[in-house]
Write a sequence for this structure.
């Protein structure tokens, strides 16, 4: 089925985007990414560890930029200024790569997005030529404002980062999808395969997750489950589900030709 | 040739570090073992493009940030 995800004019066949954090080691990271089929992978930008042997294995070797589209994030940023600075560094680091994930957090307990700082950062980044995929709350008005600014994908939370609570407010996701033309990608909160499938059945363009895979007992197996769930959910969305009804009096087998009762 | 060497202090990723002289960034990253590694570098809040590492010199009190890509969600 030819049903690509298009973000900022680029075509992707996978609708599952995954993070590269919290794995046991780089071998597990790579195995999980391969099992997930993800093409876009998020990475964080951090200070080098000055005490560390520079020859130690690193992410770039395990997850080569030639095979994956890197999506540098601003995880850990609480102000627009820090987020913009981080992504400028990311662009330098990744040879002018402009596709980024903006997230500006509001507090360290909930990791809930600060939408005021997010809007400010998005304006600056778009003006500087970044293609901004933006993590945000599930507020449909903010989502539309972020699209108006020029963000290339709106990525509302399903529930809090790392919570695995699933999709708590499908109605708001629907409101966002009704108002926004760029891809809407659920980011954060997915806990297991059915959550991913539900997001896709609702009509989301994709799902981004990290902990749901990395935090599973068997991350590589869960990555495979997520791949199938996203594909199944997408197919179900495109197929169009049957209407729900309490009962139908319309059996699936023919009513004609039923053998007669011997007690007739 | 320049005059006698003067020890300077710079701050790399928030940590003070003594340098035997005012180096170029190229020399500094070689000393840190980062030559050929994919890094990005900020000098006093401004990004220094890789193409300028051989030209830009660090001086007393400079603040450098050196970053890499790491696993993250």
């Amino acid at each position: 089925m030819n049903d690509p995800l298009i973000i900022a004019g680029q075509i992707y066949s996978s609708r599952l985007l995954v993070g590269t954090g919290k794995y046991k080691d780089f071998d597990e990271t790579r195995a999980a990414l391969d099992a997930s089929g993800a093409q876009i992978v998020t990475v964080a930008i951090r200070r080098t560890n000055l005490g560390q042997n520079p020859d130690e294995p690193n992410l770039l070797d395990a997850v080569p930029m030639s095979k994956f589209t890197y999506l540098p994030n601003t995880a850990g940023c609480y102000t627009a200024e820090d987020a913009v600075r981080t992504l400028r560094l990311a662009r330098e680091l990744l040879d002018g790569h402009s596709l980024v994930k903006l997230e500006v957090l509001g507090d360290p307990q909930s990791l809930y997005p600060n939408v005021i700082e997010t809007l400010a950062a998005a304006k600056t980044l778009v003006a500087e030529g970044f293609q901004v995929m933006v993590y945000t709350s599930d507020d449909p008005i903010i989502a539309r404002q972020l699209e108006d600014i020029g963000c290339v994908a709106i990525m509302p939370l399903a529930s809090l980062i790392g919570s695995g609570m699933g999709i708590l407010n499908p109605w708001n996701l629907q409101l966002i999808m009704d108002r926004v033309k760029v891809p809407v990608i659920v980011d954060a909160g997915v806990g297991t395969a059915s959550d991913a499938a539900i997001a896709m059945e609702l009509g989301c363009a994709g799902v981004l997750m990290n902990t749901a895979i990395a935090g599973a007992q068997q991350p590589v197996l869960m990555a495979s489950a997520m791949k199938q769930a996203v594909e199944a959910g997408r197919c179900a969305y495109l197929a169009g589900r049957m209407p729900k009804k309490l009962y139908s009096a319309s059996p699936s087998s023919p009513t004609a030709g039923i053998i007669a009762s011997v007690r007739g | 040739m320049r005059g006698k060497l003067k020890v300077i202090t710079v701050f790399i990723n928030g940590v003070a570090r003594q340098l035997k002289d005012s180096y170029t960034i190229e020399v500094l990253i070689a000393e840190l073992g980062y030559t050929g590694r994919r890094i990005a570098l900020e000098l006093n809040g401004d990004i220094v493009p890789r193409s300028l590492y051989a030209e830009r010199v660090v001086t007393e009190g400079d603040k450098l940030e050196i970053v890499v890509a790491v696993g993250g969600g």
Observations:
- DSSP finds nine helices and ten strands in chain A.
